[in-house]
């Protein structure tokens, strides 16, 4: 936009800012060239002078404390214009070539530029132009309203965005004025605009605290904190403890709120209404916060109802932008490898798993015919490298299929039997449980830092013999796998020592040769179930690791912890292969998708993210829970995800469309365990309220409204009542349920530690 550029250049010349003028001239001609960072002379005078328009070259506020090529040129080859919507705030606005007029945001005129109006910093909106930021660079407003470009959100730079803006005594008036306006607006807009209350309340409070108006901040908090939605109570408790500027320096919650824009999804009509109101009232204070700290995702169409909004909000940073859930996800299952299966009617003892594979009969039946056509939604077979099948894996697959042939078909008329493993006298404090896929072993992680493995079949756990004894064995004999085991070590329980803190997560490998455990000590350990010793300690997390899980194909595993990231590992690498960063709080639970191409993570920021293992990208962000997420389960067909949290709700998600499709209410406490039956007909949930509940998954997922409109705007319609999906509730005497597992024949196993209180 040439005109704008000329105006800015003239103004710079008039203010004797020759150096700035030179830089801008060079940039305008050489768009896209990285000219490196050109520092401005400290004597440079300010663009934003006295409101009357007289600029004082020597004492004026410094416009740019540092100009980096990346920030000066707006991305995408567009000219960068410097604009302002109110004295004391400078912003860089991207102006695409040839799009003169179409911009959101109020026009502010530059003092001293002959009153020529320039576009104000446009609001970040879904369909319109937004304040451009190069990746990895956050643009922040410094003390003097100048722009500082920081590579990483440095604490002081982040906080300085709360520079003095406006009369502290008027904050309550501003807020109550907006509150009155929203409460008096039409019902259809009220629900949408009410979403503004919470983020505005937080930012205005923090602004008062930062500028050391402590008494005003206190009275502002006391007057309006009761108006906020109940699900923000925990955040408000943290906020109420920040009463001095010094408190804000090291506070993580505070930093999250500042660095991540709070996302609100609002219809165009409601947004126009708000904008008009703020401009008429000249309410710059609130308008500045809206522009700087909020991301408004505008959609065309009907405003959403209170119920539709309530279902989706509640996370630390508002809703997910609609863009976040647009990427294609291959949620289908991989084709099973084909191999011949020995068909024998006389079933050998199921226990003979360690034995050698039987001589294969050349009858090409079972799996060969079973392998269906490639699922159209499945990822390419070789999209990520998966381990080769060993003979023992093939044998296990055969066993699995024989079991599957005897599997009970579950449904509302045929509910599973439930077998509950209660850990009695677990005074060490049970913190994690896992059960092998073939249901032969169960492991408990304890607060006393031990990992304990039990056999739940008559077959005892045995270690491999010592090296000296192994050298005496005839390696060609048929029962060599039996001979290498040392009978003297046989016992029902093995205790594994190695961690130096509570063990928060455990996971068996699919082939039952290995066991993972993760702990408060910041490590993930890999144990051998042949020797019952620790093979590797994976160090990468610096803080407690809350969960770990093996891939359904083995070899890969994922871990998540207090450092807010999830890491993907391979058993033979010391370093993580991928680091999934994006959550704003602890990663509390992790799960592999059945096709192993994706990983789901649940967090204390009240969101669930789906990550692509291939490139590390976040492909889905699900918001709607009102408390930290503690359980995740994928449906066996890979299409759906169930999540449970401290809010006692189970939410159901359609992965392909990126939509919430159901809500199961009934539990009264945190849900720590979720599991689909082997065919996906039943969803079982286990909670701290000492119950296991069974839900009709088939009914929950049928007749889904996933038309384009719903996908585009997020107008989801959840049934009022989930009670007709509840098939049964089973109480324990006094045992919180921490793990659930369906056996290959669809018997439900549950586990927890008896609590006497």
TrEMBL record:
Residues 341-395 are annotated as: Disordered. InterPro entries: LisH, TFIID_NTD2, TFIID_NTD2_sf, WD40/YVTN_repeat-like_dom_sf, WD40_PAC1, WD40_repeat_CS, WD40_repeat_dom_sf, WD40_rpt. Residues 166-294 form the TFIID subunit TAF5 NTD2 domain. GO terms for biological process: transcription initiation at RNA polymerase II promoter. Homodimer. Component of the TFIID basal transcription factor complex, composed of TATA-box-binding protein TBP, and a number of TBP-associated factors (TAFs), including TAF1, TAF2, TAF3, TAF4, TAF5, TAF6, TAF7, TAF8, TAF9, TAF10, TAF11, TAF12 and TAF13. The TFIID complex structure can be divided into 3 modules TFIID-A, TFIID-B, and TFIID-C. TAF5 forms the TFIID-A module together with TAF3 and TBP, and in TFIID-B with TAF8. Component of the TFTC-HAT complex, at least composed of TAF5L, TAF6L, TADA3L, SUPT3H/SPT3, TAF2, TAF4, TAF5, GCN5L2/GCN5, TAF10 and TRRAP. Belongs to the WD repeat TAF5 family. This is Transcription initiation factor TFIID subunit 5. It comes from Pelecanoides urinatrix.
């Amino acid at each position: 936009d040439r005109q704008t550029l000329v105006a800015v250049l003239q103004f710079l010349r008039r203010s004797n800012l020759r150096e700035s003028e030179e830089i801008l001239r060079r940039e305008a001609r050489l768009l896209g060239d990285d000219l490196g960072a050109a520092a401005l002379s400290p004597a440079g005078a300010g663009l934003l002078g006295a409101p009357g328009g007289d600029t004082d070259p020597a004492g004026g506020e410094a416009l740019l404390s540092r100009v980096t090529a990346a920030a000066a040129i707006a991305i995408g080859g567009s000219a960068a214009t410097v604009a302002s919507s109110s004295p004391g705030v400078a912003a860089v606005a991207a102006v695409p070539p040839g799009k003169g007029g179409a911009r959101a945001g109020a026009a502010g005129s530059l003092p001293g530029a002959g009153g020529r109006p320039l576009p104000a910093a446009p609001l970040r909106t879904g369909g319109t132009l937004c304040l451009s930021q190069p990746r990895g660079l956050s643009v922040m407003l410094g003390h003097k309203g100048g722009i500082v470009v920081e590579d990483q959100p440095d604490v002081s730079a982040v906080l300085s965005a709360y520079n003095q803006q406006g009369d502290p005594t008027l904050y309550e008036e501003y807020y109550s004025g907006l509150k009155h306006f929203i409460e008096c607006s039409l019902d259809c807009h009220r629900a949408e605009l009410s979403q503004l209350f919470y983020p505005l309340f937080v930012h205005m409070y923090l602004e008062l605290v930062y500028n050391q108006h402590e008494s005003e901040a206190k009275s502002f908090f006391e007057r309006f904190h009761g108006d906020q939605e109940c699900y923000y109570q925990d955040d408000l408790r943290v906020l109420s403890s920040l009463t001095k500027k010094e408190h804000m320096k090291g506070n993580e919650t505070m930093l999250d709120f500042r660095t991540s824009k709070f996302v609100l999804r609002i219809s165009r009509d409601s947004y126009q209404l708000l904008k008009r109101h703020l401009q008429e009232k000249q309410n710059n204070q609130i308008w500045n916060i809206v522009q700087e700290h909020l991301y408004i995702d505008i959609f065309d169409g009907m405003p959403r109802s209170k119920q539709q909004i309530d279902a989706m909000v509640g996370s630390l940073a508002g809703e997910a932008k609609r863009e976040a859930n647009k990427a294609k996800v291959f949620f289908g299952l991989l084709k099973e490898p084909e191999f011949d299966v020995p068909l024998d009617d006389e079933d050998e003892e199921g226990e003979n798993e360690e034995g050698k594979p039987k001589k294969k009969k050349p009858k090409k039946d079972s799996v060969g015919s079973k392998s269906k056509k490639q699922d159209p939604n499945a990822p390419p077979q070789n999209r990520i490298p998966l381990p080769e099948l060993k003979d023992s894996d093939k044998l296990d697959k055969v066993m699995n299929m024989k079991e599957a042939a005897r599997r009970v078909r579950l449904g509302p008329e045929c509910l599973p039997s439930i077998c509950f493993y209660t850990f009695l006298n677990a005074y060490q404090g049970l913190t994690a449980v896992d059960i092998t896929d073939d249901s032969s072993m169960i492991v408990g992680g304890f607060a006393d830092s031990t990992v304990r493995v039990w056999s739940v079949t008559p077959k005892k756990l045995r270690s491999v013999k010592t090296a000296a004894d192994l050298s005496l064995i005839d390696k060609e004999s048929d029962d060599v796998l039996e001979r290498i085991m040392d009978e003297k070590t046989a016992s029902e329980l093995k205790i594994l020592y190695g961690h130096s803190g509570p063990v928060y997560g455990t996971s068996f490998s699919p082939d039952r040769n290995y066991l993972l455990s993760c702990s408060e000590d910041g490590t993930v350990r890999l144990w051998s179930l042949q020797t019952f010793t620790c093979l590797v300690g994976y160090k990468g997390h610096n803080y407690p690791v809350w969960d770990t899980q093996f891939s359904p194909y083995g070899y890969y595993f994922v871990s998540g912890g207090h450092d807010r990231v999830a890491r993907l590992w391979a058993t033979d690498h010391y370093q993580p292969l991928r680091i999934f960063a994006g959550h704003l709080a602890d990663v509390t639970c992790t799960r592999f998708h059945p096709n192993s191409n994706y990983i789901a993570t649940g967090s204390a920021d009240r969101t669930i993210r789906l990550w692509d293992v291939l490139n590390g990208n976040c492909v889905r962000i699900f918001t709607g829970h009102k408390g930290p997420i503690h359980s995740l389960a994928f449906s066996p067909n890979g299409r759906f995800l169930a999540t449970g949290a401290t809010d006692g709700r189970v939410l159901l998600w359609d992965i392909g469309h990126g939509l919430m499709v159901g809500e199961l209410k009934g539990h009264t406490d945190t849900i720590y365990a979720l599991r689909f039956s082997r065919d996906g007909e039943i969803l079982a949930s286990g909670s701290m309220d000492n119950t296991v509940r069974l839900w009709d998954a088939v009914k929950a997922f049928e007749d889904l409204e996933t038309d384009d409109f719903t996908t585009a705007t997020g107008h989801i319609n959840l049934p009022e009542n989930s009670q007709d999906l509840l098939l049964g509730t089973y109480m324990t005497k006094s045992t919180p349920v921490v793990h659930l597992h369906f056996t290959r024949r669809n018997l439900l196993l549950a586990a927890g530690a008896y609590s006497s209180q």
